[in-house]
Specification:
- The chain is α/β, with parallel strands linked by helices and 243 residues long.
- It has one domain (3-224): Alanine racemase (TIM Barrel, Alpha-Beta Barrel).
- The chain has helices at residues 3-22, 41-49, 60-66, 87-90, 103-116, 139-152, 175-192, 207-212, 222-225, and strands at 31-35, 54-57, 75-78, 96-100, 121-125, 157-162, 198-200, 217-220.
- Strands 7-6-5-4-3-2-1-8 form an eight-stranded parallel beta sheet.
- 41% of the residues are buried.
Length: 243
């Protein structure tokens, strides 16, 4: 086993626990999603050997290629932008989809889930900062549209919200966006009397702040596996494919 991955996992877990304690939270309330985008199956196996079983992937085809090559103990969440033509491939292999970012995508997932007998657990992606370059529901629009999602799309198990704040080298800059997501979730729960327990927020640079603001899932890749290669992982000799 690579001492690097084992040690970095231990460090991330210790930092998560400390952030929870500082916020007066039980460390068990937040789960680590180890993000494996571009990293090979060998690295995932090392993380599994170190006790990590929940992994996140950004691309459906890359994930489906890796999954048979690692231990069946691995659990998988999809955390990237979900293209409509990949929904049918994604539903059977991911236990949660973090990035339902529009009513149109939700309707596609609902239709395919009904056709295939699936009941996907999903998070709704919120564009908390209103960035034009990012996907996601506008907070005000989601407050209007969530009832449609909950009552009109019965195949979807809507478990909570997800957000990616604007990048900043200062973790503290993300706090207001994490707080805004939590406050939005709390309003939606109170108004609709719906359980939305999950908040997926926080990455390698700011996961401690996210935990302090209520994250139940943090998506950490670089702090565990090192820098990404920039290229989709595929077995040697396999031709390039779409995302």
């Amino acid at each position: 086993m690579s001492a690097g991955i084992e040690q970095r996992l231990a460090e991330v877990r210790a930092r998560m626990a400390e952030a929870s304690r500082k916020a007066g939270r039980d460390p068990g309330e937040t789960e680590l999603v180890a993000v494996t985008k571009t990293h090979p199956p060998e690295a995932i196996q090392e993380a599994i050997a170190a006790g990590q079983t929940l992994f996140g992937e950004n691309r459906v085809q890359e994930a489906r290629t890796k999954m048979p090559l690692v231990s069946s103990r691995a659990r998988w969440h999809f955390i990237g932008h979900l293209q409509k033509n990949k929904v049918r491939q994604a539903l059977p292999v991911f236990e949660m989809l973090h990035s339902i970012d529009s009513l149109a995508l939700a309707a596609d997932v609902q239709r395919i889930a009904e056709e295939d007998g699936q009941r996907p657990r999903v998070l709704l992606e919120v564009n908390v900062a209103g960035e034009g370059s990012k996907f996601g529901f506008k907070p005000a629009a989601l407050e209007q549209e969530l009832e449609t999602l909950l009552t009109g799309m019965p195949r979807l198990d809507v478990a909570g919200l997800m957000a990616i704040p604007p990048f900043s080298p200062k973790p503290e800059d993300s706090r207001k966006y994490f707080a805004a997501l939590r406050e939005l979730r709390d309003r939606l729960q109170e108004r609709l009397r719906a359980g939305l327990p999950e908040l997926s927020m926080g990455m390698s640079g700011d996961f401690e702040v996210a935990i302090q603001e209520g994250a139940t899932l943090v998506r950490v890749g670089t702090a565990i596996f090192g820098e990404r290669t920039g290229k989709t992982w595929r077995p040697a000799g396999e031709p390039a494919e779409g995302p």
